[in-house]
Every structure is written in structure tokens, then in C-alpha cells.
């Protein structure tokens, strides 16, 4: 059992370390529209800034936890912090978008080591009587850090630079390393099994190839040999991953867990709902900054009510679920979230924040708050006590994979809708063939597209209006598709969760 002083230092190290990864998931999205303009990047390149991080985090987070158990939790925690800091520095100093994408890949690897090892350190450092309070403190404070992420990111982008969003991690990482070296004890798990490197490699190759093909498709087309090859290769690698996990002695995703109806339903719900949330939150900063004209700081502050509602209402929602069972909140919550996505799509972009974005985000935040606590509890309560670690890790990975795939797929959808809408509007405005030809290379920037230098004043205004309206149409389809996915999640809750499923569980947090 930790002495009180030592325990506080352990909490400080794990909270700061995890917060770097959690904050990065919110602040980078706010910086993307400004980063895109600054580096003259396409939307597909902006997607890779997010996708590269998510790819390695989702593929390796389960391996990261297993490595911590085998090689030492503090050692892996420190390795994750070091990799995260070095890659953050590379992002902050980058002069091109490709460098950022490569560095973000390394950040994902660092996060995959950092986050699971932080929870493992807490579990090993506190006696059972104190563990729940320690994990609850960790969960609450990292949630607060995540909540302030959008506003902080928007302020940094506007007051300093988009580079400050990445460089912010350096002093935090320095504090993490100093505290961990001096105050965090090294622990191992004597029962840790063999590492599933084959499964991790196949998952990374499969997801990476599939996402690469989907992101490249808008620029190359479905008949392009590279697009066809990478998508087919990704599907084949994921099929091989399923086969390997079914035969492996120590699979990172035990197939037997998916024979449990409630566990499978809860993970399908996670897949649909987090796909909807991730796609919408990826495009929302572009909507606010490029379509609605918000500043970066205003866009960051605009998203704050969503995260705050999820944080403030989660305890209430968990207590309500304890009384009513899990099925009702896991049906109602995603349905309410669907209404929030719908409002984002149908409310006028010309209306004020209080009449458009705010009500939509409040409804969405309420729906997510109703869902998150009973969803985590259902995943854990569906399996035996010995399988809770695997079940929690799988559910976290499913949420990450949902985000990874959704951003790639919705990028294709948004590009198709944007181009079709833009063609109709350019035809209606009688834009000259020369101007249209000059616009062609700019189409991949979507809302950041600008009239060519040679266009006349009237034609430039017409192009700007066409781009803005077409981008609004693309965003509307993204939000409406997100609403459909949320309704599928509600159906999973209604049909897959038993009416008497328990909702109580120890405090946990989704990575």
C-alpha cells in the first residue's frame, strides 16, 4: 500500500501522462483548419494528421498494456512519455504536412504505451481499499483536462500558433518523467502472457491499408490500382487477423468474449456511436471556422458545452442506470445523441450560435452523458472478473477503430457531396471555363478552397458563395449520416442488451 505522499505523486504522474494523450484528441481537431490553411494542405492530408495518431493507438493499445505487464509498468510508461514528447516536438517544428503525419504516427505509438500503463500503475500501486478512489480521481481530473482541451487549443492557435498545440506537451512530459523516475515504483505482472505480435501487425496493416485507400479515393477514384490494392489488402489483412485471433494461444482479442450477447451488442453500439461522434467532431471545427466564420478561439469555446455536459452529467447518468438497468439508457442515450446530430445538420448556418450550434451540442452532450457510464459498465459486467481487463481494452480499441474508419469514410462522402454540389452551383453561376479549370486543383481543400487569382471580382464572389454553400451541403450530409449511425447504436441497445442487465461497475475510463 502506498504512503499518502507517494500515492499523490503516483496519481500526479499518471494523470499528467494520460492527460497529454486525452488533450491531444481534442486540441488537434481545433487546430486542423488553421494548420490546413497555413501549410496549404488538402482535406485528405488533414485527415491523416488525425488518422495517423488513431491508427497506431487503436492497433497497439492492447499490446501496450501487455508490454507494461511483462517489461515493467513504469518502464513502458516512461517510454511512452518520451516518445510522445519527441514526436510532439517534431510536430511543432514541422515545415510540411508529411512530417506532421509521420510524427503523429509516433505520437500514437507513444499514447498506446502511455495510457494503458498509467492505469496499470494505479492498479498496482494502491491497495484494493484505496484503488477505487485513486482511479476515480484519475478519471475525474483527466476528464477535466479533456474538457478544457478545445478552448485551450483554440486560444493557443489564435494567440500563439497552431504549433503551440503540439509544443504544449513538452513541459507536461518533462514533469511526468521527473515525477515517475523519483516517485513511481516499478511493478510487473507475474502472470502476464505472451505478446500477440502477429495480431498487432495484422491489425495495423489491415486498418492502415484500408484507411489509406479510403482517404486516397477522392483524389484518385475507385478504379485506381493503388486504391483497389490497398483496400483489398486491408480487408485481407483484417480477415487474417480474425483467423489468427481465433487460433492463437494468447490472442489480444479473445474470440470467446464475442459469443456473449451483451458484450457484442455493447461493442457494436460503441462502434456505431463513436463513429458518428468522431466523424462529426472531425468536421465540426471546419464547419465553425471555414463555413460559419468563427475564429479559432471561438470555435474551441463553442465545443466546450458538449464536453462539459458529458463530464457533469455522467455520474447522474450512472446512478440512474443503476436503478433502471442498462438497456433503457443504452437505447435512449444514442437516440438523444441522434437528435443532436440531426440538429447540427438542419439548423441554419446563418443563425446565431445560441440558436444553432449550442442547442445541437447540448442535446448531443446529453445523449452521450446518458450512454457512456452504462456502456462501460455493461461491457465489464458481461464478462467474468478475470476477463475485465481484456473486455475494457477491447471496448476502448473498438472506440478508436470506429473513429479511424469513420473519418476516412466520411471524408469520401463529404468530398463526393461537395464536388457534385459545387458543379451545380458553378453551372448556375455561369463561371467561365478558364476559372473552372483553375479551380480544379483546389477542390481537394473543400471549405478552404479559394477563387483563382485571375478571376474577376464578380466571378470571385460567385465562386466563394458556391464553395461555402457546397461545403455546407457536404457538412449537412455528414451530420445526417451521423444521426443514422447513432440510431443504429440505439437499436443495438434495445435489441442486444437484456432488460435486467446491471449497470453498476468500478470506475473506469475509455482511452
Short descriptors:
Growth Hormone, Chain: A, 511 residues, disordered C terminus, single chain, 16 helices, mainly alpha
Question: What would you say this structure looks like, in words?
Answer:
With 511 residues, the protein is mostly helical. It is 79% helix and 0% strand. It has helices spanning 4-38, 43-71, 73-93, 97-125, 128-159, 163-167, 169-183, 197-220, 225-247, 261-291, 296-324, 327-346, 357-381, 388-428, 433-439, 457-496. The protein is globular and about 70 Å long. The relative contact order is 0.13.
Distance between the termini: 26 Å
The ordered H/E elements are: HHHHHHHHHHHHHHHH
CATH topology of the domain at 1-186: Growth Hormone, Chain: A
Helix and strand content put the structural class at mainly alpha
- Return the average pLDDT rounded to an integer: 84
Percent of residues in helices: over 70%
CATH architecture of the domain at 1-186: Up-down Bundle
Q: What's the main sheet like?
A: none
How many DSSP E strands?
0
Number of helices: 16
CATH homologous superfamily of the domain at 1-186, by name?
Answer: MFS general substrate transporter like domains
Q: Which CATH first-tier class of the domain at 1-186 would you pick?
A: Mainly Alpha
Question: Which percent band covers the strand fraction?
Answer: under 5%
Uncertain segments are 504-511
Shape: globular
- Cα gyration radius (Å): 23 Å
Amino acid at each position: 500500500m502506498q504512503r499518502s505522499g507517494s500515492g499523490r505523486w503516483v496519481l500526479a504522474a499518471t494523470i499528467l501522462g494520460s492527460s497529454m494523450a486525452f488533450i491531444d484528441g481534442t486540441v488537434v481537431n481545433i487546430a486542423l483548419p488553421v494548420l490546413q490553411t497555413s501549410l496549404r494542405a488538402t482535406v485528405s492530408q488533414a485527415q491523416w494528421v488525425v488518422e495517423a495518431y488513431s491508427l497506431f493507438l487503436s492497433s497497439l493499445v492492447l499490446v501496450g498494456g501487455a508490454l507494461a505487464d511483462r517489461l515493467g509498468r513504469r518502464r513502458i510508461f516512461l517510454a511512452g512519455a518520451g516518445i510522445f514528447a519527441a514526436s510532439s516536438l517534431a510536430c511543432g517544428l514541422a515545415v510540411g504536412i508529411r512530417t506532421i503525419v509521420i510524427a503523429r504516427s509516433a505520437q500514437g505509438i507513444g499514447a498506446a504505451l502511455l495510457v494503458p500503463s498509467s492505469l496499470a500503475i494505479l492498479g498496482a500501486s494502491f491497495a484494493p481499499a484505496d484503488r477505487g478512489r485513486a482511479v476515480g480521481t484519475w478519471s475525474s481530473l483527466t476528464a477535466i483536462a479533456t474538457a478544457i482541451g478545445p478552448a485551450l487549443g483554440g486560444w493557443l492557435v489564435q494567440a500563439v500558433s497552431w504549433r503551440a498545440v503540439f509544443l504544449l506537451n513538452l513541459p507536461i512530459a518533462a514533469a511526468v518523467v521527473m515525477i515517475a523516475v523519483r516517485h513511481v515504483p516499478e511493478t510487473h505482472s507475474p502472470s502476464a502472457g505472451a505478446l500477440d505480435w502477429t495480431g498487432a501487425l495484422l491489425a495495423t496493416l489491415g486498418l492502415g491499408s484500408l484507411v489509406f485507400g479510403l482517404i486516397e479515393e477522392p483524389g484518385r477514384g475507385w478504379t485506381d490500382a493503388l486504391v483497389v490494392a490497398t483496400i483489398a489488402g486491408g480487408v485481407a489483412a483484417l480477415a487474417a487477423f480474425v483467423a489468427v485471433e481465433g487460433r492463437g494461444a494468447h490472442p489480444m482479442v479473445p474470440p470467446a468474449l464475442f459469443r456473449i450477447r451483451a458484450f457484442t451488442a455493447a461493442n457494436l453500439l460503441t462502434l456505431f456511436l463513436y463513429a458518428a461522434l468522431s466523424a462529426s467532431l472531425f468536421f465540426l471545427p471546419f464547419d465553425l471556422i471555414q463555413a460559419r466564420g468563427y475564429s479559432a478561439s471561438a470555435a474551441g469555446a463553442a465545443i466546450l458545452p458538449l464536453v462539459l455536459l458529458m463530464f457533469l452529467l455522467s455520474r447522474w447518468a450512472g446512478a440512474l442506470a443503476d436503478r433502471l438497468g442498462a438497456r433503457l439508457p443504452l437505447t435512449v442515450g444514442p437516440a438523444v445523441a441522434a437528435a443532436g446530430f440531426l440538429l447540427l445538420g438542419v439548423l441554419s448556418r446563418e443563425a446565431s450560435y445560441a440558436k444553432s450550434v449550442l442547442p445541437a451540442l447540448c442535446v448531443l452532450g446529453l445523449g452521450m452523458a446518458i450512454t457512456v457510464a452504462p456502456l462501460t459498465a455493461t461491457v465489464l459486467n458481461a464478462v467474468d472478473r478475470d476477463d475485465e481487463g481484456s473486455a475494457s481494452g477491447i471496448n476502448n480499441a473498438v472506440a478508436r477503430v470506429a473513429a479511424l474508419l469513420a473519418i476516412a469514410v466520411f471524408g469520401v462522402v463529404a468530398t463526393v457531396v461537395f464536388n457534385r454540389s459545387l458543379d451545380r452551383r458553378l453551372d448556375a453561376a455561369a463561371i467561365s471555363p478558364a476559372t473552372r479549370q483553375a479551380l480544379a486543383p483546389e477542390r481537394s481543400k473543400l471549405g478552404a478552397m479559394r477563387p483563382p487569382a485571375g478571376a474577376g471580382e464578380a466571378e470571385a464572389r460567385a465562386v466563394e458563395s458556391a464553395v461555402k454553400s457546397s461545403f455546407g451541403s457536404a457538412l449537412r450530409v455528414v451530420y445526417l449520416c451521423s444521426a443514422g449511425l447513432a440510431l443504429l447504436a440505439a437499436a443495438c441497445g434495445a435489441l442486444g442488451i437484456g432488460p435486467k442487465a446491471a449497470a453498476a461497475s468500478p470506475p473506469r475510463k475509455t482511452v
